[in-house]
Amino acid sequence: MSLGCACCVCARTQEVGIVEDLGQFKRLIDPGFHCICFPISQVAGTLSLRIQQLDVICETKTKDNVFIQVAVAVQYRIITRSAYDAYYRLSDPRGQIQSYVFDVIRSTVPRLELDEAFASKQDIASAVKNQLDQVMMDYGYEIIASLVTDLSPNARVKASMNEINASKRLKEAASQKAEADKVQQVKAAEADAEARYLSGLGVARQRKAIVEGLQESVSVFSKEVKGATPKDVMDILLLSQYFDTLSTIGANNLILEHDPATVAGLQRQVGMSFLQKKGNNFF
Question: Which residue among 18, 57, 94, 280 is least crowded, i.e. fewest CB within 10 A of its CB?
């Protein structure tokens, strides 16, 4: 008498089937076509061998008492040779992984300040992976990667951090602007000093040239004109310059009162200075 009949089953790619005989584990079936004796044997379930991801969001506080939400993505898969343990020893693998993630996050982040937590994302992820590797391997699960995808403090904390950063940058900008103004003023002062120095040199050379020209004119005129004294020559030159000055002033539409006695006094003073200088040259 036949107690059962053959039943054909198929397992899909990247899946493993669990076959039981009267409720007792019998064997694993690989992807493909298989025959089992139904109803004595039946496929109790299948397990996916593809990589899966569990997203966990954990709220905790940092060392400086700032509450933040830490988002962790755990990527894992079932080890084929340990499919029995994955199916029979653990009823809720996702809940188990989530519990260990909470434990690691809430024991690691409180030892760090907020800025340190942002800079230590890789260390936090490594701590989560190391903890899960040790535990989940016994249940037939391999942890591929653990990623800290987000660290999100309170909105008010974010705003204050942005204000601190903005104030710091404004301070640096003001310092740089002040330094630029200082350099500009120093360079302007140096340029003005150099311009004044060069202008002074030009004026000195101009006056020297005028004096040398007057000396030469007096000397030549005294030699060419018989009976002419240096005083006569100086009087003529001073009068010529005096009239040139009046012409220049008249071109600018200015009317100035002048006294001929002043001109005569100026002639005497300049003439005496030139004669004195010329007399000194003989010694």
Answer: 280
